[in-house]
Amino acid sequence: MSNQPAEAPEAETSDAPAAEATEAPVEEAAATEASEAPKASESADSTGTAEAAEVEAVDEAGERGRDGWRRVGAVLIVLVAAFAVVVLWARPAHEPTAPTAQRSTAPVAVTSLNPTDIAYLQLMISLNTSAGQLFDLIVTGGDPALTPIARSAADGHRAELAALRKALADGGAVEDSSIHAGHDLPGMVVDADMAAIRAVPAAQQPAKALEVLRDHLTGTTALCGSEAKNGADPATKAAAQQVLDAHSKLLAQLPTM
Question: Which of 216, 223, 221 is nearest to 184 (CA)?
């Protein structure tokens, strides 16, 4: 036997540590990727949720806008229907439906009448119209002193009425005979005046008729004087001057009874 110590056997080179060292970074990378994957997923989900919320908000805003317009349209329909019902209900059953106005190419007339002009024309038309029954009564009575005056006055009043109505229409106003109907104004011949003439004996009727005629002419001349001072429309003032001249002449012709 040899006395040399026996050589220790060489340790076997093992690859295990190296393998473990190599696998560790891989596992760490895998773990990192695994940990980052939920974050990326959460980020994508968050972005998608925000975009979906924006789309939903736009849709809701559009829907609210459409609802608003639908409500406005419904209100307008209700108002139009209510107006139509009121108009139809207010129209008398016997009144025919007014014809549709045709569009006119003529220029719109510009009125030059002031309130005094309009008031004068409306009242003067009523005064002259009311005197017609008085002239008829005088002519029928046949008084020789009054009959010629009544005939002349009747003709003059008709011509004056035409001029007065023309001035009113040319000025853009509309005649309204109901304004002074039945009003006992200075110069107005009312039913009570006619009744008073007929109530007296026949021999006294000419004098009573003369009294009513004088009151009529006095009232009309005073009215014409007011228009001459305060009126504005040249045509109306010209018509008033013609009435003033004619009625003043009639007053001067009246006999004393």
Answer: 216
How many whole angstroms separate alpha carbon 148 and alpha carbon 145? 7
Rounded Cα distance between 124 and 167, Å, is: 12
At residue 34, the 3 state secondary structure works out as helix
The CA distance from 147 to 153, in Å, is: 10
Torsion angle (degrees, nearest 10) of CA 209, 211, 215, 217 = 60
Quote the pTM value.
0.56
Residue 124's closest CA among 253, 40, 244, 16? 244
> Which helix (H) or strand (E) covers residue 230, if one does?
helix 205-230
Cβ neighbours for 203, distance < 8 A, ≥ 6 positions apart: none
Amino acid at 28: E
Contact (CB, 8 A) for 232 and 116: yes
Q: What confidence tens digit (pLDDT) does each residue in 3-12 have?
A: 444 443 343 4
